[in-house]
Amino acid sequence: MKERDDTTTCYAILSHRWGAEVNYEEMIGLVKMQEEEREEVKQRHGYQKIIESCEQAVKDGYEWLWVDTCCIDKRSSAELSEAINSMYRWYQNAQVCYAYLNDVGESTFPTKKDDNKFAESNGWPEWFMRGWTLQELIAPKEVKFFNKDWVHIGNKRQLEPILEKATGIPRAVLRNGIAGRRLSVATIMSWAAERRTTRVEDRAYSLMGLFGVYMPMLYGEGKVAFQRLQLEIIRRSSDQSIFAW
Questions:
Q1: Using an 8 Å Cβ cutoff, are 132 and 179 in contact?
Q2: Hey, which of 25, 78, 219, 242 would disulfide with 185, CB 3.0 to 4.6 Å?
Q3: CA atoms within 13 A on the CB side of 222
Q4: Do β-strands 11-16 and 64-66 pair in parallel, antiparallel, or remain unpaired?
């Protein structure tokens, strides 16, 4: 594993819904594993995602790919905290983000809500209901969407009208990001209102980059994380709309 400077390295980055993943320790220890253990890891859907996204990066001419599941050593609380505080910047500086939609089987992007097919995610693919994928949609310059079989089904620019309808995010923000825009705190919070995270704390941590704030990670603090986020935003902004949340 090599550490690179995200401001000078050309790289692709993956955005996805977590499932049976391969972590940092397993990835670097793969060659030393017993054959049976190694085969179990390779059969995981998370391993296949890494392989497929690497192959796509090579096709697109990139030597480097960053994947959150296996590129952060979560055994180190310091590294995890640094990674979460840097996440928005890493997605922003990537040349391209691959958004993998594991519940889309068709070779075209869904054009309208389908409450029967996506009953548990407000009528859209589950990727649109996850907390972390909000910044992963807004921050990158280019986002390419892939279905469950890694068929390319569109990019952010082509799909702006549908993405605006699915997320409530204005096309101008989808196209150019939030830098330099006078967006109220309440507006940005509204984009995240219906999104879900596995950990309660991640509802706050996943929004730090969008508000340009930094906080230490304290998993176990529960809803206090959101209160800390609000305090950090108040320190940086006089926007009274934060009190609506």
A1: no
A2: 242
A3: 1
A4: parallel
